[in-house]
Each structure stands twice: as C-alpha cells, then as structure tokens.
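Example A, followed by Example B.
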Amino acid sequence: MGFNPLRVGVIGASSTYGWARNSHLPALIGLPDLELLSVCTAHEKTASESAEIFGVRNSFYDYRDMLKDPDLDAVVVSVRVPYHHQLTMDVLRAGKHVYTEWPLGSNSFEAKQMSEFAKSAKVKNMVGLQARAEPVFLMAKEMLEDGYVGEVLSSRMTLFAPGILSRTSLDMWQSNKGKGANTFTILFGHALDALCMCLGEVREISAILSTQVDKWEAVDTRQVFDVDSPDNVLVHGILETGSVISMHVATVPWHGSGYCFEIYGSMGTLVLEAPNHVQLGNLTLRGSNSKNRELTLFQIPDRFKWIPCELQHGTVFNVAQMWRKFAESIRTGKSIQPDFDLAVHRHVLMDAIERASYTGERQIL
C-alpha cells in the first residue's frame, strides 16, 4: 500500500553555509518517501535563495510562521547549539515531529527539558548522533554481538582532527565553551556515542579536558579571540561489561591522523578507521580472529544500507540513513534510537567526564 511522503521543513537551511546544506537538504531531496516542503533561514533574502536553489515552494525567515503550516509533518533544527533549546521547544509546542542536531542542548538541563516535553507532546523525536546509522558501525556491532572477537577485553579510540588554526570569523563563537559546540561536545560526543553503541555503556570514568591552544586568529579578519573551550579530551574507564576503554580526541593545528577505534577480545580484533571525523563517514572495518589470523578488510553488506545508491557517499550518507529510520518510526509509531532520551543519557555521561577532569576524581555512574 502506498503512502504520502513525510513533509519536512528545515530550520537553518542556508544554501551557502552550515551542516544542513551538505546533509539534511540533499537527503530530504533524494529520499522518495520524504518531501522537502519548507526552508527557513534568519533573513528573507537567504530564505528565498535557498528555496530557489533547492527547488522548494515554501521559504520563511521566521520559523514560527513555518510552524503554523498544517501540511508540515516534521522539522529539522540545524542551527548553532545555543538556539537548539528554544527552537526545539517551539517545534514541540506546534505538535511537529522533530530532528534536532547534536548536542541536543547547550547543557544537560536543557536536554532533559526537551526530552520530557517531547514525551508530553507525544511526537517522535531524533537527535543527530548519526553514527548509529553508519553501516560500518552497524556491522561491527552485529559482529561483536555474534562473538567475532569473543569477550571484549579492551578498546582504544583516537581521533586527531586538523584545523584548529584555520577558522573563519563565522566559527569563532565556538571558542566559548559555554556555547556548547567544541572538540569535547562535537568530535568527542559523536565518537563516544559510537563507542557506546558498539560496546555498551560506561560504569566508571576518569578524564582530562585541556585547552592547549588558548587563542584563535580568524583567517579572514585576523581578529584574535581568547579560547576556553577544550581542544584535547583524554578519557579512560570501565564499561558495564567490565572491559576497559581508552579515548583521546583532539583538534590539532596540522595533519591530523583521523579516526581509529581498536577493539580487542579474547578471540579476535576489530579495527574501524576513517580519515576524518566519525560523523563524516568514509569508515572502513578490518578484523582478525582465531579462524583468520590476518587483519582482513570487510565488505559491508547491502542490508546495512537503507537508502538509494546515489545518496551513499560523503556527509549525506548517514544523515539520509537517519531520515529513513525516523520516517519509519513516525509512520509505524515504534520507538527508535537515537532519540532525545538517549541524548540525555549521553549529556549526563559527558557531565561526569567534565566532573572527572575538574575534580581529578574517578566518577562512578
């Protein structure tokens, strides 16, 4: 039986800048069971330009006007983190399903408010932890559950991303830790959730958060900004399963080595790697165990890919996968992760990591 496409509006739909331009907008245009109904930016001119470029009939520069549209089913909130709370709460008040980018809020208090209100509003919600739709992570999780490495004993994850000194003035707001978007909340947050997805939740944690580069110079204006947001995050801990973990995530000036996640078990090893951040995709999966001593590159089966082939590349890949899951949840009424409840759980864990760094004491969750 056929069904009408899910009609979606995007808040933060700039045609020249931002995450939505390279992820949500092409995903919504390319998925046959969704319709990009509306775009919204902060200015009338940019909203009209986005509507023309992306072939959308409705454009808004006040998101509250967009939310009045009775034809609108769901909304993307893809703007700077400090605005997530207000916009998401307004979407929920309007009775629309909502997909809000990660971090869900600027802090765990905001995230809890959003999660609780979403329950009372009885609408579906999703947070942008898109590693949970990444085929490589899905395959690794299945292999771990099937016993490929035996009992997981330990794991090590590193992510070194270049670019800390190549920011424009538009990105300088990220120098302020209180704004909620930095190496800890973004790079580390995505990588942490991917680790927990594969291996389970954390029981005990110790940490160091450090700001190694305390001044940024904007490459376009040459203005210098003081920095208090962390650029290095070092964590070690114990999972609920008893296995031990080590994580080091950093933004560095030059030649970052990318992402590497090694999982060591009683019977084998898995290695996940990417040249960039976890949320940008392009991962590979290799493994060896007692049956095959050589570290072998695995091909990812098509059953982990839920979207058309033309969307299976780059930034749009995992976001399109997420939208396929979200649309299914809205149509069937079934709960699905990553939702706001999971986001709260992740915020609380990251609060514990901050406390561990601030106090120098191991935190028990």
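Example B, a separate protein, is given below in the same form.
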Amino acid sequence: MIDLHMHSNHSDGSNTVTEILEKAEKLNLKTISITDHDTCKAHIELRNIDVKKYYSGKIIPGVELRCFYKRRIIEVLAYNIEVDKMQNWLDEFYKDKGHAQVQKKYLSQLYKTCMELNLYMPKIEDIKWNPEGEWAARTIYREMKADERNKEKLPEDLWNDYENFRHKYCYNLENIFYIDKSEDLPGITQLLSVIKECGGLAFLPHIYVYKWAEDRKAFINELVDNYDIDGMECYYNNFTEEQSQYLIDLCKNKKLFMSGGSDYHGTKRPEVDMGTGKGNLNVPDEIVNDWI
C-alpha cells in the first residue's frame, strides 16, 4: 500500500515530518509523498534528518499547488520536482501574498457576507484562529455552525458539509459567498509551465470534489485534453468504485500516469487516516511503477 497525498504542519496538517514518517513506517506504506499546500519545506526538512531512522520506504518529492481555472480554484499535485527550484518560485510568487495576509482578507469578506445574511456570529475580533496555518473558509464555517440558530438561515447542504460550503458556495461565481482569488493565485497554464520547468509531473487530484462542475466527466476531459497533464489521482478517500474506475480507464486510454492518496491532515481532519483514508482506501503499490 502507498499514500501519495498527505499534509504536514508545514501547511495545514497537524503532524511533524518525523511523525508522518513514523506513522507511515508503522502502517508499512511502501511509498509516500508529503504534498503540503504551496510549500516544499517538508522535503527541505527531510534533508536535515536521518530519514531511515524513522521510515524505510521510498519518498517522492511532492507539493499540492492551487491555481485558477476559468475563475475557479483547482489544485494540481506536482511530483518528482526539483524541490529548491520549486520553493524558490513559490517564495517569489507569494512574497506579497503570504498565507496569513490573504486568509485575513478572505475572512473579512466571508464575515461581511455572514453579516449581510444576519447570521449569529461573534464579533470578528473575537474569532480565535491562526491565519498563519488555518483557512478562512473553514474558520467561518466553524463559527457559523457554532450557533444552531444559523441552521434555519442557511441551505441544508451548506450546513451539513464543509466541502459543500467550500466548493458549491465559496467557489460559486453566482453565490454570495464567492471569493475572488484571481489576484492571489497563478493561472493553470502558468502553474503547469512552472512544474515542467522544475522537472516535475502534474497530476489532477481529488477531481470529483469540484461540486460546481455540473458535468464532472466533461470537466475532467476538458482539462486532460487541453492542458499538459501527466496523470490523475485515481484513488482518493471519498471516491466511489465507479469514480475510481472511470479515472483508471481514462488514464489507460489517454496514456496518463496514475496516483492515489488519502489527503491525510492528522487531527485537522480526524475522519481521514493515512493510507486507508476513511477506512476503505487501498492504493496499489504498482500504479507508480511507470513514473517513479
């Protein structure tokens, strides 16, 4: 079993790099990749520790990168990258767009929307969160859910699921919760070019989470046919067997590489465990043989 999608405390995961290695060893994972959001610092840290002391398997350099596609946010997993080159690009691109800076801006926008909807919320200055390592949308969602009276004021699907809130509302161009992040992120063409310049391979992760895409299969094929995509994340913690099989068949037909992972965040997402996801994930070792 392998897991090529996980996050450390260098982005929004709770585990340190060594804790991830120890857990991967305990689970007997043969190959892993730490794919923090928009940073390669976990892989830079790996150079400074005795990895074999904690983990005996293979580690693939990776990073999960956000970008804009038709005014929507999607993510791309980059593997086998030149870590220093990618980190230098990230540092340069985000030097005036630090995580804390933009998350504070987004929190303010979302809070304003909550006030327009007359939701029961604490004063914005009383919201306890860490903009350096947390996300504005998840923070606002937590505060909305903290008061049961808001349930009557919000759509049922938003109330029931954070992922619905994020993808169907915050990423919905027509919705009051939409956040325009076009000034803060690279476009997909630019990002794919950077990945290639860093010697990496570009994979589309968790493709079915984009609930704003009315026709998911058409959306997938549009990306694959029009952009320099190398592979797909065919195994993911909430994919159905049918969804995974569609992606596997697509990769075979389009001659794309395959990957898979849990999207592990430690205690930040306790329902998802390393290796097994929500309990039934099992990414076959051999799917990476063609591209490792």
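On Example B: The longest helix spans residues 99-116.
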